[in-house]
Design a protein that fits this description.
Elements lengths: L2 E3 L2 H9 L6 E4 L7 H6 L11 H6 L4 E5 L5 H10 L4 E4 L4 H14 L3 H14 L11 E4 L1 E2 L2 E4 L4 H8 L13 E4 L1 H6 L4 E4 L11 H5 L8 H4 L3 E3 L2 H4 L6 H16 L1
Parallel strand pairs: 1-2, 1-3, 3-4, 5-9, 9-10
Antiparallel strand pairs: 6-7, 7-8
Length: about 250
């Protein structure tokens, strides 16, 4: 089977399933695992995919997603060429598990999908706690954008023993005003800025905001950097996002 992967998470799922040898192409942003990125040719960033070239590869299956606004155009063009597509659009953590199973089944290795899901679930035990520190994940610092109700990051927070005070807001994410944040001041702030390398996350960008000095997370030095690779990609590495969130939440509870 000849498989093209459009989006990082799908590439990482295929690799985690042990099926990277099926990949004939990827998008430019698929950078993990490094050996797969080095071996498999890239055909443009997610919204600038060179669709004609992808079609020319004559893949048996294109793995794509609707996780980024604008992907619809890419998906429609590939479907119009008569190429089989599998489209992921996960909201919660269970949807990620479902997508892994669907991809494994499409590749003819369904048992590997079940095994990978079981391993991920075992690595992310649900923390039962009476005290749940409030966690703000920042997808972007200005304005502050955070995951809301339909977000796997919210599920990760709750699974790791925390709570997302903005989980009642409908949608995948929302911008927050200072008033929103001060109404439920977070005990932990996790910087996970989209499109920014974790080495460039700066806690002082958060701590120097006017009026934030008494926010518990700022006052107590609980501003952590968790790469978007671990919280923003709906694939196997959300396990690492969970681990880092849990460490920060456990520290806030101590």
């Amino acid at each position: 089977m000849r498989v093209f992967s459009h989006t990082c998470s799908n590439t990482e799922i295929v690799a985690a399933l042990g099926a990277a040898d099926l990949l004939i192409g990827r998008d430019d942003d698929s950078d993990f695992p490094p050996d797969v990125a080095a071996r498999v040719p890239a055909y443009g960033r997610d919204l600038d995919l060179r669709v004609d070239e992808v079609i020319g590869l004559r893949p048996d299956l294109v793995l794509t997603s609707l996780t980024v606004p604008g992907h619809e155009r890419i998906v429609d063009a590939i479907k119009a060429a008569g190429i089989a597509t599998l489209v992921c659009d996960p909201l919660g953590l269970d949807d990620i598990f479902s997508d892994i199973r669907r991809i494994a089944a499409a590749l003819g290795i369904a048992p590997r999908g079940e095994q990978l899901v079981a391993e991920m679930q075992a690595a992310m035990p649900r923390v039962e706690a009476t005290t749940r520190p409030k966690v703000l994940i920042e997808w972007w610092p200005k304005p502050v954008i955070t995951p809301t109700r339909q977000a796997w990051a919210t599920d990760l927070i709750e699974r790791a023993g925390g709570c997302n005070p903005w989980a009642g807001i409908d949608g995948k994410s929302a911008p927050l005003t200072d008033e929103h944040i001060m109404a439920s001041p977070p005990d932990v702030i996790a910087m996970s800025w989209c499109g920014v390398k974790v080495a460039n996350y700066r806690a002082d960008v958060v701590s120097r905001r006017p009026g934030w000095a008494e926010v518990p997370a700022v006052r107590d030095g609980r501003i952590v950097a968790i790469s978007e690779e671990f919280l923003g990609r709906p694939g196997p590495r959300v396990v690492e996002g969970y681990r880092q969130l849990r460490a920060a939440i456990d520290a806030a509870r101590a």
